[in-house]
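Re: the 175-residue chain
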Amino acid sequence: MATYIGFLRAINLGATRKFPKEAIVAAAEGAGFTGVATHINTGNVRFETAMRSRARIETTLEDAFREAAGFEVPTMVFTPAELRAVLAEAEAFGHGGRHYVSFLKAEPSADLVAQLEAGSTAEEVAKVGGRAVHLMLGENYHQARLTNATVERALGPSTNRNLTVLRAIVAKWAS
């Protein structure tokens, strides 16, 4: 059994996209995953499975989540080693402002990476590393041009977490 960590996109937003932690656990267990646990109510789930195909794992979870929640729940799955590498990359940037990581379903092409990173400015920087996009923003991050929506338009389905949440998840599940 291998351990994976999934990041669910766009849950617990507004009145119609509620998907409580207990329902996430029940849906994942119902789909055959074991050792299921969640971290805060933003769609972070740890689980174990004998499956090895990331695409198959994501599809199985998404099917179970759609059935349980009643809406689509795009899910991006990473191994603990991959998350440790994403955190190490984030820490190496040494950015003093707001740092978010957008997790992608697929690794983007070099052309798409170059296009996204070209949108960086002195105040807002996007750096892509594999299936993770580091968005380093200034203090006025609520008015940032570089957002997860920008990442999705350029690179496809993604969901993001701030660096504080990523550190907590790595400490809890990937150390």
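The radius of gyration is 16 Å.
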